[in-house]
Amino acid sequence: MSKKTMVHKGPGYGYQKRREGESRSCIRFKCTLINTIQDVLRQRAGWVEVKDDSEWDFYWCDVGWLRENFDHVYMEEHVRICHFRNHYELTRKNLMVKNLKRYRKLLEREVGRQEAAKCDFFPCTFELPCEYHLFVEEFKRSPGSTWIMKPVARSQGKGIFLFRKLKDIMDWKKDGNRSEDQKDETQVESYVAQRYIENPYLIGGRKFDLRVYVLVTSYVPLKAWLYRDGFARFSLTRFSLSCIDDHYIHLTNVAIQKTAPDYDPEKGCKWQMQQLRRYLSARHGAESVEALFRNIDDIFIRSLQSVQKVIINDKHCFELYGYDILLDQALKPWLIEVNASPSLTASSQEDYELKCRLLEDTLHIVDMEGRLTGKEKQIGGFDLMWNDGPVSKDDVNLDALGSSTLTANTHLGYVNDRKRQLRQLLKPLPGQKKV
Question: How far is CA 274 from CA 320, 333, 383, 413, in A?
Fold first, then answer.
């Protein structure tokens, strides 16, 4: 890389090459979000906040900044930002499904139908308006079934509705092939129409989904970490298909549920992942629950592999994904969506503490301070799930054993012994002062 100073052409962002041999006395960070991540960054020893057009080493940016600025900045070797350039290949609902469908076809062609069937973990989905006619064909095969419409690029349940009649989505019938002079502010927004899972697993008669965190530090090779803690998000209203217009029944987003008249901010609407795992084990036995969580692990890996060749890998980038998983009555997990900016705003004290731990451990893995060897398989609450191949819980010769006998190095919903583990792990390296 060039050693000359290069600056962003727009207002405010630049990086200056440090003189050879000059060390960093502190980590300069920038953060535009006002929530848990800002608290964690400000409390981190040796990290100093910078604002405006000051130079920075670490930036927890939003995707808007990334879209406008990423291609116009020069980054030194050590600089890190919290998104990959085209993260949306996995985090936009339409592109996620497109990439999963393409990956499933590839597996069927190269490995066989049985392997491709392992990708059948997302509901039947069509993009509208461009796939409207394909959708109608599928819709007519199962009259009376329930579908759910979601805008491809919105979050927190905005714009979502359920339907059973084609007349409810006539606005999306337009094929999107209008000429430029016909396109105006009334142009139809892209949505996905997805078969609604009508038999969700219920606890206390209520629907829930899982929010699980996966950290990717590289796509080439693929290196992914799974966080042990997560939570189940519950609806506050008992499940019923007789009323498909009630968002409090069908949408588990906290942003929706907290507007319910009977929402109690003290109680919230979440269970910690450990609590859910204990409940399921008591109801269905440890073996069934182990199989369930292995299938959830498989969703993470295969979804990341589906975009591995299209994501623009960059050593400056990492991504903390928020996966939304729904269970049905047969204990089959379904991938609903993947979030590039999972909410870091806490809904309770317990939620705040979980997110602080999550973000502290994310920063440990990103390792701006250079305290790790790169060979770690657990860092705080994160377990290394994939490192250019499956990661075993034990140090074994994977080639000799074969992947069928592999004990995966994942512990979703298990006890998180992070404080003790971090005390042992984060000792200073030889010749390095403790940060």
Answer: 21, 17, 16, 4
